[in-house]
Write a structure and sequence with these properties.
The protein has 486 residues and is an alpha+beta fold. The protein folds into 2 domains: 361 residues, Kinesin motor domain (Kinesin, 3-Layer(aba) Sandwich), CATH 3.40.850.10; 111 residues. Helix content is 44%, strand content 21%. It has 15 helices and 17 strands. Strands 1, 5, 6, 7, 8, 11, 14, 15, 16 and 17 form a 10-stranded mixed beta sheet that branches. Strands 2-3-4 form a 3-stranded antiparallel beta sheet, with helices on one face. Strand 3 and strand 4 form a beta hairpin. The protein is elongated and about 115 Å long.
Length: 486
């Protein structure tokens, strides 16, 4: 939990002039301690209020230092195979978008070198691709992104906004993967420059407008997700192909606002109401999670009260290492909003997530692919022989089952019937045995064909001994194969 205090801006001066008719610089309500972990709220004729967090970032802290202190650790956890979340929370105009994406100039002028005002998004991407370049010979990498906004409780795909259905995309839940947005575009990128260009174009579709407190107020919640997948072969013995996956979620929340200060009317008013409602739902979820962590009792967490909290289920209390920026303004005129933000941050500090390593082994690697191929050829030849014998038996049975000439029916004596019946029973028994035998061999051949296909597509090879152990576990197949091979 980190708190970032922005410097005084022109909007603070305009707001003071509007409310108290003074031309003097706005008074501040924030004081910092040497420990850099304590923030004190001060107000004339009020008692001082102290808050303690993991770190308090004063207005003098620049973007690079803010990333090194906070974001760098989370991004490194994602590279190591965990899910990570960087989220900015606060009132409108408190510096959330600047913290997450950076200034407008930094986004438009992005190149291989980071702009001094670049935010968490470009710095995180720079960090990830630096790691890929350093380890390109050690593993295979794949980077995939998705980008969405929640505007007026409608989810829009920012990577492909024209294809979003009427009413927006819908949230679904999978027992294995958890909560996801159905139909959301996921785009694979090859380079750092391509990724930043995609984000820059997608960000233009985000809903923004001007209010009395912020010239470029974000009117929607934006969630950018970066998926990093790594594959490599671990030297043995035995050799193993390993897969490690990490998900980085970068979240820029729309800011809550007091209507008397922002001056919102018409559509802006409806936007503000919807934003405040979803932020309130987020606060309720954090309060329930913090209460559960403190009292060790299972309480209801209202994740379904808004689409924002539904999508943040894992980030708030699930499989994620989450870092929250509480952004506040130092002006005394925003004392109440700053106090509310710091109370939210204090509750959020008590929330515990349970991140787990997203790593698994694809399959074991062996060196006897030729043996598997030969074994498959032997089984195929035996299967062909059995089919031929089966066809001959069926042909003989068909010949015996032909009806006799009507005039000769009386010539058939009862002495021949028992012997014919016995022959037919033996033939049926043989056909049944051969049919089962062929079915087992066909199943084994099909399974070995899958193994061979994997061998042709992958550099590794399966363990032939383990395969033969599974084959020989079937008694009927084992007896018939041993008999034919002998």
């Amino acid at each position: 939990m980190f708190v970032r205090v922005r410097p005084l801006i022109n909007e603070d001066i305009k707001l003071q002039k509007k409310q108290i008719k003074k031309e003097t610089p706005p008074e501040v309500c924030t004081e910092f301690q040497e420990s850099k972990k304590k923030l004190v709220l001060v107000k004339p004729y009020y008692d001082d209020r102290e808050f303690v967090f993991d770190r308090v970032l004063s207005p003098e802290v620049d973007q690079e230092e803010a990333y090194q202190l906070v974001g760098q650790k989370v991004v490194q956890e994602v590279i190591d195979g965990y899910n990570g979340t960087l989220m900015a929370y606060g009132q409108t105009g408190s510096g959330k978008t600047f913290t997450v994406f950076g200034s407008k100039n930094s986004v438009e002028s992005y190149d291989r070198e980071l702009h001094p005002e670049a935010g968490m998004v470009p710095r995180s991407i720079h960090h990830i691709f630096d790691y890929i370049r350093e380890n390109i010979d050690e593993a295979q990498f794949q980077v995939t992104i998705s980008f969405l906004q929640i505007y007026m409780e409608v989810i829009t795909d920012l990577l492909n906004p024209k294809n979003s259905p009427k009413g927006g995309l819908q949230i679904r839940e999978d027992p294995k993967t958890g909560v996801f947005v159905n139909g959301l575009t996921q785009m694979t990128v090859q380079s750092q420059g391509d990724l930043m260009e995609i984000i820059k174009e997608a960000a233009k579709a985000r809903s923004t407008s001007s209010t009395s407190m912020n010239r470029n107020s974000s009117r929607s919640h934006a969630i950018l997700q970066v998926f990093l997948e790594q594959r490599w072969i671990e030297e043995g013995p035995p050799k193993k192909r390993r897969v490690k996956k990490g998900l980085l979620s970068l979240i820029d929340l729309a800011g809550s606002e007091r209507l008397s200060k922002s001056g919102s009317e018409g559509l802006r008013l409806n936007e503000a109401k919807t934003i405040n409602k979803s932020i309130s739902a987020l606060g309720n979820c954090v309060a329930a999670l913090s209460s559960e962590s403190t009292h060790k009792s299972m309480s209801h967490v209202p994740f379904r009260d808004s689409k924002l909290t539904r999508l943040l289920t894992d980030s708030l209390g699930g499989n994620s290492k989450t870092c929250l920026y509480a952004c506040v303004g130092p002006s005394l005129l925003n004392y109440d909003e700053t106090y509310s933000t710091l109370l939210f941050a204090t509750r959020a500090m008590r929330v515990r997530t349970y991140a787990r390593l997203n790593e698994n082994v694809d399959y074991k690697v062996s060196s006897d692919s030729d043996g598997v191929l030969k074994r498959n050829l032997i089984l195929e030849s035996h299967n062909a022989e059995l089919k031929q014998e089966l066809d001959e038996l069926k042909s003989k049975m068909n010949q015996r089952s032909l009806s006799p000439i009507p005039g000769e029916v009386s010539c058939i004596t009862n002495s021949f019937l028992p012997e014919d019946c016995k022959c037919e029973e033996k033939q049926k028994e043989l056909v049944s045995k051969f049919t089962h035998m062929i079915q087992y061999l066909q199943a084994e051949i099909a399974r070995l064909n899958v193994v061979i296909a994997n061998l042709q597509n992958e550099k590794g090879e399966p363990d032939i001994e383990a395969i033969m152990q599974k084959v020989m576990q079937v008694p009927e197949l084992r007896n018939q194969v041993e008999r034919f091979l002998s």
